[in-house]
Structures are given as structure tokens and as C-alpha cells.
Amino acid sequence: MARQLLIRSSNQENNILSATDRSQQQKRHQQTDQRKLDQMLRKTRSKEYMAAIHRLDAGGRVHNQDQVNEIINTIKKEFPEIELKGILLGYVAICYLGKPYEVHTLDMEGGIIKHYPSGQSLPDGMEKARGIAMYGGYDFIEVYVDCCRAVSANGMVSVIPY
Predict the structure, then answer these.
(1) Which residues 6+ apart lie within 8 Å of 92 measured at CB?
(2) 143, 109 in Cβ contact below 8 A?
(3) Which one, 2, 16, 41, 111, has the greatest CB density within 10 A?
(4) Which of 158, 139, 138 is CA-nearest to residue 148?
(5) Residue ranges of the domains in the chain?
(6) Using an 8 Å Cβ cutoff, are 127 and 137 in contact?
(7) In what order do the strands lie in the sheet with 147-151?
């Protein structure tokens, strides 16, 4: 007498369908969250935010940590609904200190401002923004894990995918 090896009950089938539905719902939710995040990060930057980022170059080669913290707090206030940690790597902009410096960065992970001479590579994935900062006509570049956001003098944002 042959025995049936696999019997699927209607309860098991419902569980499988339910898990599939949950997976699809989670995927749609993540896509919606990503669209909302993208939309928030495309908004025109405020004058206060623009002024804070411009101060990265104003202090010369040395900034005290209070100045850096003030700039970082202004950045956080610009995006109160977003946790930038893990998605915003930092900022790259033309350095106006003169030769040998070409660009400066603000590393969001360490809260470090550094000025780089021509030929010295930028750390942590920020090198991809150097050319845009140098020749793109933007005030500064926000470097994210998935794209660069180039910010014009009027605060308008252009997304540059990798």
C-alpha cells in the first residue's frame, strides 16, 4: 500500500500565503520609506544650513570641537525626521585656503574637518565627490552611501547617482 509522503493541509497553505503577503507588504513599506527619504533629502536647503556648511572653510586649518559640534547640530536640525547616521558619509567642498589645499571634508562619523591638498585621496568613499566639488559649480556635495547630492548656492539639490 502506497503512503502519501507530503500532505499539505489548508492551514499550512494559509501560513505560506500569509508569509508571502507579509513579505510583499514589508517590501512595499521599505520602498515607500525610501521614496519618502529621497523626497525629504531633495528639499531645498535652508539659509542657516548653507551658512553652517560654508563655515567649514572659514576657520582655517584648525577648528575647535565646539565649532564642529555646532555645524553638526545645524545639519541635524535641517533633517529632524531623518537619522542620518549610516547614510550620510560627509561633505566635500572646494577649499579656499589656497595652495596646496584643493578641497575640504566634514566626516560625519568622526565629526572631523580636514583640508586636502591636490593629489591626496579623500577617505571613506568621499573621493567620488571631489570632481563634482571642483568642477561642477556647486557650493558643496553631500556624500551618501548610495549617491551624491550636489547643493547649489541657492540651496537647490541635484542628485548624482553612483
Answers:
(1) 103, 104, 105, 122, 126, 129, 130, 132, 133, 140, 141, 143
(2) no
(3) 41
(4) 158
(5) 11-41, 45-161
(6) no
(7) 112-117, 101-107, 88-94, 140-144, 147-151, 157-161
Locate 28 and state its grid cell: 512595499
CA 69 to centroid of chain Cα atoms:
18
All cell numbers assigned to 152:
547649489
CA 161 to mean position of chain CA atoms: 12
Residue 60: HSE in the Cβ half-sphere, 13 Å Cα cutoff: 2
CA distance 94 to 105: 9
- Grid cell of 43 as nine digits: 528639499
* Residues 46-88 pLDDT 10s: 999 999 999 887 655 456 788 888 999 999 999 998 999 889 9
Q: Contact, 125 vs 69, CB < 8 A?
A: no
- Asked if residues 104 and 93 have their Cβ atoms less than 8 Å apart, the reply is yes
C-beta atoms surrounding 129 within 10 Å: 28
Look at residue 105 in the predicted model and tell me its pLDDT. 94
